[in-house]
Structures are given as C-alpha cells and as structure tokens.
Specification:
about 280 residues, five-stranded antiparallel sheet, Beta-Lactamase, alpha+beta, about 15% strand, 5 helices
C-alpha cells in the first residue's frame, strides 16, 4: 500500500472520529431541547388552567403567545439538528464501508505477499505445488481446481496437482482444444460470466488462468467450483489471479530447473563413484 493511501486512510479515520463526536454532541443537544419543550408545554397547560379560572387574562395571554412561539422555534431547531444527525450517520456509514473494504484489500495483499515469499523461498517442486494449492483455497476461495502443466515432450497439458477432483479424472489437453487449450495458446485469462450458473465441465472450467513467464505459457490454473461462502468474484480477485499466475509460473519454472539440475548432479555423482571404485 502506498504512503498516499496510508495518509488517506488516516484522514478518513480522523474525519470519521470528528463526525462521531459531532453526532454525540448533537444527540445531547436534542435531548436538552426535548426536555425544554416538555417543560414549556407543561407551563402552557398551567397557564391555560389559570386562564380558565379567569385570573390575569391579558398578561397571561401574552405570555402564552411567547411560549408557543418559543416552542415552534425549538421544534424547528430540533428538526434541523435531526436532519444533520441523519446526514452525519449516512456519511459515517459510507466511511465505515470504505474502511472495511480497504482493510480487506490490505489483508489480501499482505497474504499474497507472504504467499509469494513462500513460493520463491522453496525449490522443491512438490512443495511449490502444495503452496499454490493453499493460496488458491485460502485467497481465491476455490473448492475444486487443478494446476495443469505443459509436458515438454508431448506438448499436452496435464494435471500436476488438484483439489476436489481426482487427478486421474482430469483430461490431457492439446493446445487450442476447448477452453483450457485455447487459453494455453492465447495466454489470455478466462472467466465464466455467471459462476452461480456454471455446470462443471472438466475441459471447460469456470476460470482458466495461464501460467506465463513473459509471453511463454507453461501451464494453466483451472477452477471448477468456489467455496460455499463465496458466491462470486470480487474486483480484488482478478488482481490476485494476475499476481498469482506470474508468481506461481516463476516458482514452478525455477523448481523444475532445480529438480532437473539435482537429478543430473546425482547421476553424474553416481558415475563418478563408479569410476573411482
């Protein structure tokens, strides 16, 4: 989060506190007005009783008119204050909603930062896939999904890891075939318009995100079902998908290179041991 955003958030909090203090003072003043109104109404009742008894008619009538005028003035002031209080409440609600949205976005970005750090600190291929799986579950909110990678020998896309769908059920896909193959060829993300109305099709997922290193696609992340509590994608989800795809692709590519180099090193060491014996 930039320094300007932090300053804006702090300004929003300070303004919200100021509005809250104004709201409390307005509420206290309104209570005082209501008490004064009640006292004046009771005084009018007393004066009317005295008028009916016939005492001090002229002077009491003048006092009565003054009291009525004062009550009307207090009523207008009360209505004005209540209107301002309602306006302040509406602004406070807007600030509170915005504050919650900012907090949620900050939490998601912080979680993604931690997850990306974990990805780039691991060199084991299986561990990288495990971290990617946890990110898709916890940050994206997916229940059924798979990570599909391109086989360098055959060129086919095959599932390397999955959740909610057995690996053996997931098809191998050629580039350009169905939604998965098309995304692997074009490198453009795909999102089904109505997640709630999606019917699972293993070749045509709800979401398909290419794993790219620059313009080279090494695989895709496919999602078939969201968690029960997640009804649709929020705007921040699309940012998470983009960031995740880049970090995941780099981590997978690096772990593959490391695994290949370790395997070659182990083979060479074996030959050396045989020769030295």
């Amino acid at each position: 989060m930039s320094m300007d955003d932090k300053v804006d958030d702090k300004g929003i909090q300070v303004r919200a506190d100021e509005f809250l203090q104004m709201f409390k003072k307005g509420a206290e003043f309104t209570q005082d007005l209501l008490k004064e109104n009640e006292r004046l109404r009771y005084r009018i009742f007393q004066l009317e009783e005295e008028l009916r008894e016939g005492g001090f008619l002229s002077s009491l009538s003048e006092e009565n008119r003054q009291l009525v005028a004062r009550i009307e003035e207090l009523e207008r002031e009360k209505d004005e204050i209540l209107g301002r209080i309602r306006h302040i409440e509406a602004e406070n609600n807007d600030f509170a909603t915005r504050y919650v949205e900012i907090e949620e976005e900050n939490n998601n970005l912080a979680n993604l930062y931690i997850a990306s750090y974990q990805l780039h600190s691991i060199l084991d291929f299986d561990d990288v896939l495990k971290v990617i799986t946890e990110i898709i579950i916890n940050l994206i909110g997916a229940e059924e999904f798979a990570v599909m990678l391109t086989d360098e020998k055959t060129g086919l896309l095959g599932a390397a890891a999955s959740e909610g769908v057995p690996l053996h059920e997931l098809p191998k896909v050629r580039p350009g075939e169905g939604t998965i193959g098309t995304i692997a060829s074009t490198g453009e993300s795909f999102f089904f318009e109505d997640p709630a109305g999606y019917v699972r099709d293993l070749r045509n997922p709800m979401v398909c995100i290419p794993l790219k290193i620059k313009e080279h696609v090494i695989g895709v992340i496919v999602i078939y079902k969201l968690l029960v509590q997640k009804k649709a994608f929020a705007p921040v989800d699309y940012e998470l998908f983009t960031l995740l795809a880049g970090h995941a692709a780099t981590a997978i590519f690096s772990s593959r290179l490391y695994s290949d180099s370790e395997r070659k090193l182990s083979t060479m060491q074996g030959f050396i041991n045989l020769l030295t014996k």
